[in-house]
Amino acid sequence: MKTATKLDSQTIDIVKSTVPILEERGDEITSRFYQMMFENHPELKNIFNQTNQRKGDQSKALANTVYAAAAHIDQLEAILPAVMPIAEKHRSLNIKPEHYPIVGKHLLLAMQEVLGKDVANDDVIGAWEKAYGEIANVFISVEADMYQDVKNTVGGWIDYRDFKVTKKVKESDVITSFYLEPADGNPFPTFKPGQYITVKADIPGESHTHLRQYSLSCAPNQGAYRISVKREEAIGDNPAGIVSNFLHDHLEEGSILPISAPGGDFVLDNQDMRPLVLMSGGVGLTPMMSMLETAIKDQPEREIIFIHAAQNGKVHAMKERVKEITENHNITSFTIYDSPEQQDEGTFDKKGYIDAEWLSSVLPTHDADFYFCGPKGFMQAAYRYLKEFGVAEEDINFEFFGPAQEIAS
Q: Is residue 214 among the annotated active site residues?
């Protein structure tokens, strides 16, 4: 894994001098970068999530990465914590070394166009060309190790492999689970609780392939992968639910779905015997279920607190499974409904939302291992409350398919 830079001091000084302008206009630069790259390489729309493009999430994530890299260009090892989750997603999306020169070319062109040649002069662009090469090499090296690890795993594969839907289960009014097994019947690798797969959806009428990452919602070694997908509603011209609706409406038992091998660094630490706190909102339940089902099997003596927030009982997935686990294992579970219906009476513990006062009343200690996942608002609140409760940063773990800074800021 390459982190030592070969850049000369002048190049480093020039790149670092651009940090303030990147901080101010980085999102503008990366937004233009994506526009230019897709105009010249429309085939890359088959890789990049176009919904995130419309929402601006992708450009924000790239801007944050570019800014961090510029600030630490003389010590790139400092950005490795930010590199790892991005590299995991790149591996899952099958990003290859040949994609990096295309990205670098258009990033520099966007810098010149947005900042103007007075600011982004030949010296600045030349320095950034060298710097980008170093940054790209870090990603390529990290991702090469990840590809090799997958390749060396029993049953592992690179790119996409056809899996067959062996079971389709409606979990709530909006969430459906799909059980997936290899279409060729050959072995497939296990995974770590909390990891995800990328599904490749070729949707009739769409001009490009859509890729989406879904957390695995079962414990490892169950004989199948399980993803539990929420049907999303499209808003305006933003087809946010195009893949989830396709899966709900067109995938049946026997259908074939190409997927990538499991990946992701949001995984349960099953060596820690302190209390385990799992918190989820909505479909953020999926990786929490994988962790819960793993923990009760591998760590039956561990104290576990499971907290789930949903709109009401109609959209609360897997509640019977959690109830069964609660009754038979060493766990305490809490359910929060913000808009309960009459038939929900007696089935939830709190009406409204998770708040700091309630959280502190149900958590036995701040010295625990905390994991959470859900919509952005839920996660921002959970992070803030845990910090107020005195939880150490290293004990706070979360999965967010977007810029992590939006949760921790």
A: no
